[in-house]
Amino acid sequence: MENNEQLERFFDQMKKQDEHLEIPAFPEVQTRKFSFWIPAGLAASMSLAFLFIQEPAPVESEPPEVVIITLQADENQNQHFTIEETTFLDTWESPTSSLLSEY
Amino acid sequence: MNRSQLDHILKAHHRDAYLWARQCCSFEDEMAKDVLQQAYLKILEGQAKLKDASKAKTWLFSIIRYTAIDELRKAGKVVSLSDSYDPVEIQEEIDSTDYEEIIKHLPEMQREVILMVFYHQMTIAQSAEILQIGLGTARTHYDRGKKKLKELITKVQIQEGYGK
Questions:
Q1: Does B134 touch chain A (CB under 8 A)?
Q2: In chain A, positions 28-47, which contact chain B (CB-CB < 8 Å)?
Q3: B100-128 residues labelled b (16+ CB within 10 A) or e (exposed)
Q4: Contact B36, B43 (CB under 8 A)
Q5: Of A4, A18, A31, which is closest to B41 when you measure between CB atoms?
Q6: Are the C-beta atoms of residues B67 and B31 closer than 8 Å to each other?
Q7: Residue A25's closest chain B neighbor by CA?
Q8: Does ipTM exceed 0.90?
Q9: Which of A4, A14, A31 is the closest to B119 by Cβ?
Q10: Considering only CB atoms, which chain B residues are within 8 Å of A3?
Q11: Cα separation of B51 and B47, whole Å?
């Protein structure tokens, strides 16, 4: 059996003295952990904002590149030139194709 | 273990934890408060995980001790292990009721084991776990610490007797 009476008395008195110590209140610890929801929320709101803010780009009409000049005869057999500007050709006839048939 | 369970454990041991932090910081109140705050942060941030809830106090004391060692090292107050084996001789006159001053004269490891066993009612095995040393080594610190503390108490009482 250990004889620790002297030490036990010493620590009992030390504890009694410590009863007068001011124990700090349990701290409200704010963890520094970076929450997953913060970046996720930021990303979601930024993508929503991007969708709403982005205006549809106006569709630019292409500049006419083709000029179609046709010679047409009216009911009095008067011939008129009609000039059309367009971006494409429905049909194309070689300007020299007539040479093949007429000569 | 979730945040509220951890909160509950920490609150239950808060008083003991503060007293232990103070004892690990050479009884300096402000440093003890800082150490305790840092230890709680480590726990709540998940840097230190409790695996066995039945060992909560041992686990908490261990975290506090290592946090205190880091703080003391930063403050340049760490005594090397070899220095800490020989007890500091009492030169000045110490009041026999100045328990903190008396116990400060014990070498570090002996002081810690003695405080854990006699003040915090822990076993030598629990002390060994907190100090992360073998049971045999803890027992040696315990025996030497006890012997030395008895000598110190007697010495202080004799000094006081002569002074009267």
A1: no
A2: 29, 31-33
A3: ebbbbbbbbbbbbbbbbbbbbebebebbb
A4: no
A5: A31
A6: no
A7: B14
A8: no
A9: A14
A10: none
A11: 13
Residues of chain B in contact with residue A23, where contact means CB-CB under 8 angstroms, are 14-15, 18-19
Collapsing DSSP states into helix, strand and coil, what is residue A70?
strand
- 8 Å CB contact between B141 and B109: yes
Question: Which residues 72-101 in chain A show a CB within 8 A of chain B?
Answer: none
Residue positions counted in chain B: 164
What span, in angstroms and rounded, lies between the C-alpha atoms of B150 and B107? 14
A62, A82 contact by CB (below 8 A): no
Contact B19, B60 (CB under 8 A): no
pLDDT bucket at B82, cuts 50 / 70 / 90: very low
Of A7, A21, A33, the CB nearest to B146: A7
Q: Do B14 and A13 touch (CB under 8 A)?
A: no
What tokens were used for B130?
């907190």
Across chain A, which has 103 residues, the per-10-residue mean pLDDT values are: 84 95 84 67 85 73 75 82 77 73 60
Phi, psi of B87 (to 5 degrees): -65, 150
Q: Are A12 and B155 in contact (CB under 8 A)?
A: no
| Alpha-carbon span B118 to B19, nearest angstrom | 13
Which pLDDT score, from 0 to 100, does residue B85 have? 55
- Between these two residues, B88 and A4, which has the higher pLDDT value? A4
Q: How many Å apart are CA A12 and CA A99, to the nearest integer? A: 127
pTM: 0.68
Closest Cα of chain B to A35: distance in Å?
A: 11
Q: Which chain A residues are within 8 Å of B45, Cβ to Cβ?
A: 31-33
- Residue B20: enclosing H or E segment and its boundaries? helix B14-24
